[in-house]
Amino acid sequence: MASPHETSESNSPTPIPHLPFQHSDISQKKTELILAIELQRKAIQDYDKTHDGVKSTDQFDFQEYDTMTSKFDELRKELDDLRLEGDEFQVRYNKEPRILVITTWPQSKIIVCNITRTAQHPHESPVDISKYDVYRVKCEEDEQQFVVIYSEWVQYIHDLRRVYRPLNPVRGTETNIYLEWFGKTTKDVVDCQNSFEIEEVLASHMKAFKYARLAQILRLKELWNSKKTSFNSEKSHHESMLDRLWSSAFPNQVLDKRISPLWKQLGFQGNDPATDFRGMGLLGLHNLVYFAEKHPLQLRYILSQFRDYPVATAGINLTSLLLDLLHITKDVADLPATSRDWNSEMVLFLVRCNDFFAYEELYCLCFLLLDSLWERSSASYMEFPVVFARLKQKLESYFKKRPVSILELKSWLDEEGLLAKVPSYVPISSPRGTVLEDKGFRSMTGKGYYGVYSLEGLIDSHSVTDVVISGSWESLSPRSPHAART
């Protein structure tokens, strides 16, 4: 049997087995939408022809025309959104019969599944099912068989360099599309009667990913700028961040003065916490404030354990560690968002999370992991570098497994029992498109407001309207990030 990246030389390909789709309802809905879009397009074209040459506004009903075009745009958006729900297709993948599965955005896995049948009775499980990485099992009662659909290999949408079809295909290859992958010299051939829709689904996911990647990198650039911004006690919003940190950590204890030995209870090294932020700037403070305000029970739990490590100082070191895992340096931060130097495993993870506060939530989860590793190691103060090295090693191993969300990463920690003693941690998701207006999320550099929680709003605030799509520049409206051809 040919591997997914090898083309079989057989001149008589194996027939594609007939199997019902798991996403058949989505496929049916898309078919109906495509038909409705074409009918609406024809209606607009007919209206244009009927009124061709009409110059008087009295003879042209702009309201009716706007209604028709608005309906067309609504149908297009509905189709674009539906394509991001994923789908599966019966194909010949490099001439071998397979099922091609594209999962829901932002997970956006591309799974090539093989198919096997067992000669078991329908009420019995196949005895050899353990050897398969099962995607789905179906019982065909008429044939007294189990159909086992198992994943042969998995890629992600950001592994896909390009999907295309030749302008002048060779006879007999009209239904072929070609997939080119980053890091691979060969291209894969997908033959399917519905190859046009495969191309459209993949294009929609690629466009959504590249838009989300751009937004997340712009966010990281803002965070890097805050790292370069020094704490300034003369700026009121800098001082207010310290006030918020204390009141969230110790709500029942009043801080009598700004410079006080009480700060050591929180894990700062001296009486003035501002001196601890020299390396990480306002970003170190921002992360601590976020943890204290959004997950106060977890922070107070850590403080109540009186660990033999300074909590606030550990949090500042954790900020440095995350920047290291992001592979963000001064040189990288100055590069455009389109550079592949921004493609570290952790950056791609944040993109898959597709959330404005993904970085901060990851910071909070890593803090809990650090505390768990410390407690399990029964470490002393002098062993802090050893525990921190273990934390980095563990995070690198997690990111190599390519989690698709903070929740999935948390579930892996739960499976290892690493969060068993911590009060229940629930990641916070940002409300999509919520305008904050004068209560907006203030830029940590003190230069203004982001204006919205959503990543889409961050792009709006930067006036970015162009995104690299399949190796070329295409105009992309921030209001319609998932536009794709119909």
Features:
alpha+beta, eight-stranded antiparallel beta sheet, 14 helices, two-stranded antiparallel ribbon, 486 residues, disordered N terminus, 10 strands
Entry summary:
With 486 residues, this protein is an alpha+beta fold.
SSE succession: HHEEEEEEEEHHHHHHHHHHHHEE
Shape: globular
Kindly, what is the distance between the CA atoms of the first and last residues, rounded to a whole number of angstroms?
A: 35 Å
Class by SSE composition: alpha+beta
Query: How is the main sheet built?
Result: 8 strands, antiparallel
Strand content: 5-15%
Number of separate helices: 14
Low-confidence stretches: 1-21, 432-486
Instruction: Calculate the mean pLDDT score and round it.
Output: 80
Could you tell me the radius of gyration in angstroms? Answer: 27 Å
Count of distinct strands: 10
Side by side, the strands of the main sheet go 4-5-3-2-1-8-7-6
Q: Helical percent range? A: 40-55%
